């Protein structure tokens, strides 16, 4: 009886380089640009969940809020239930997208993650009034985003970037007004005689 011989695997030819393992950049990718309407709808859903949590005094609602923020910060809208509902179901019903820079939105989600995580710790450490104060601050910020279209976290991002605390290359569109304006406005900016 003969032993079977093992042949080394024949390498496949591909169009690009062969990657081994997990592409961690893709795992933690955040969309850029972001649909402003989807972000505002997500903020509105956060407001509803946060108010329900505040009114019921239910600590697990704080955990749900914190988990949602962390999912959005780390993975974008791909696995957060509120973001998926906004991006896949509700925002498409508006019919069009208003695209804005992604890095400030991720920064704002990070602030939400920090606030809700601190609220969870405070709540379960027995400092419930402090947890509810943080949740009230979150409700104010998320309401500004959802109902007025003012992203407080994005404004803080811009302030920090102008002060040099966030590098300019993190968000080029945030620094260059021509990258975030309509074609008509870009044309006018190039030709001051149209002002």
Q: Helical stretch count?
A: 9
Largest sheet: 2 strands, antiparallel
- How helix-rich are the residues, as a percent range? 55-70%
Structural class: mainly alpha
User: What would the principal axes of the Cα set say about the shape?
Assistant: globular
Question: Which spans of ≥5 residues are poorly predicted at pLDDT below 50?
Answer: 4-10, 177-182, 184-195
Roughly what fraction of the amino acids lie in strands? under 5%
Number of strands: 2
User: Could you report the average pLDDT, rounded to the nearest whole number?
Assistant: 80
What does it look like?
The protein has 195 residues and is mainly α. The chain is built from nine helices and two strands; from the N terminus they run H-E-H-H-H-E-H-H-H-H-H. The chain has a two-stranded antiparallel sheet with strand order 1-2. Helix 2 (36-56) packs antiparallel against helix 6. It is globular, with a radius of gyration of 22 Å.
